[in-house]
Amino acid sequence: MRSSQLFSKTLRQVSTEADTVSHQLLLKAGMIYQVASGVYSYLPLGLRVVRNIERIIREELDAQGAQEMMMPVLQPFELWERTGRHVSFGQGLFTLSDRRDRKLCLGPTHEEVITEIVHHNVNSYRDLPLLLYQIQTKFRDEARPRGGLLRVREFTMVDAYSFDAGEAELDLSYQKMIQAYKNIYSRCGLPTMVVEADSGAIGGKESHEFMLLTSSGEDKIIHCPNCDYAANVDKAQSIKPPGEQEEPLPMEEVATPGIRTIEELASFLHIPKSRTLKAVFYSADKDLVFVVTRGDLEVNEVKLRHVLYCSELNLASEEQVKRAHLVAGSASPLGLHGIRTVADESITLGTNFVAGANKPDFHIRNVNYPRDFQVDLLVDITLAQAGQGCPKCGAKLLSAPGIEVGHIFKLGTMFSQKLAAFFLTREGSRKPIVMGCYGIGIGRILAAAVEYYHDDKGIIWPKSLAPYHVYLCALGMDNPELAQVAEKLYAELEAVGMATLFDDRLDPPGVKFNDADLLGIPLRLILSQRCLKSESVEIKWRTEKEPQLVPIAEAASKIDELLSTRGDSN
Hints:
The longest helix is centred in the first third of the chain and has 21 residues, at 167-187. This protein has 15 helices and 31 strands. By secondary structure, the protein is α+β, with helices and mostly antiparallel strands. The two termini are 23 Å apart. It has three domains: 18-70 and 108-224 and 399-451, 2-Layer Sandwich (BirA Bifunctional Protein, domain 2), CATH 3.30.930; 252-379, YbaK/aminoacyl-tRNA synthetase-associated domain (YbaK protein, Alpha-Beta Complex); 463-566, Rossmann fold (3-Layer(aba) Sandwich).
């Protein structure tokens, strides 16, 4: 491809709304174009990267015996009603009606559709196991699209689904897909960590995410340096630090004028935050819930949503708090009636806490559970933190930022039972098919690769993902002799199948070098007037400073040798 004919332009500045490195660089490099909030077009360079990612995924899934198919974007809303997921997806589900007022949705995922298809095509244990996948456009009505391709409303995703006769067989399919995913990310040049994850609206009894650890990551990973425990922050468990244990003392009221936060309270009374009780008010499916934790810990809203079995969880509004006669800044579960109360188990790890007095500017010393108050639920609802104990081995946990590039789930029979996807066993009985699902966001891999591989000049593509492998940079194309040599060299590279971007523009060298750095093509081939005199070309890797001189006649074979020995990553 010639740069003079390429449909895209590099940019020097982009909108300040581009808040991540990948968003900024992909826009600057002319690889994507933002059509609307959370909606992007892939321009030719970006699409070439996408096709490379898809090729790797297809090869690895096909190697596991998976069969590719294609399902529709439009889905009957009735299928979602039968599984009940129209509730759990909530406002994230795009819905519409056709001219006959039949309700449809734009698929954010395809569990319902694939289960319905399998229901009509699988009858016997002889039809199992089965592994199917597609690469398809998905839609989710994200409340706050951000991060460029990392959180969008329209995206391309790989859905793979396994169908087995039992849980043991599902375990085998699950491990097979874990290995396929590891192969995919390895070939993409992305070192990932497999972590325990929350199943979210997809559902299922077990799930794992593949996380790329990078300083710009949008998620937090909790992991143990001593064993293999790793989980995303929504799922992570920990051994919480114990509080001070003393003989319970009588409660006493203390004036705390103007004190409204845990930090202010601990400072005012000269006590650690772990000696306080924190009150947080939530609206769970519009019902008020009073949540209590130890003051040094934070509520994990994902865990809380699960224990409450609610589809929508938000901080309670000021009006809800007023109607319940709760005193923000001085609230506690003492004497609380008529409001569902959920407490973290940390309230049992300590004694003689300071809690709100349920009236402005006062708190109560020496509050103890269960002597002084009761709760409806006592469970783990706080975020695991670095420095707390590993739930497996007790070592101190670490935290690291990461980007999710894949998510897999053990669905079990939750979909097959609701959509009647049964099979006849060898003994002649009918049982629900045991399912797993495996998702990879194509745009996420592209963005994650840029987040991981870049410098202050631009993108640094791994060879396996690069839109082109060679950037032929001809300096002085207005010189007939140089232009003739450059054209001949470009033809030779194309003839041997070398993916080459030929910068045949008449722009100054500085412009061409800046674009070469920005686009991140692995190998740069520079042809100049000085090169003509020595009958050589300069060859330089994107990540190296110094070029090497190679005779023009040997350039094609030398480049082939360099690319063959380089490997798939930088």
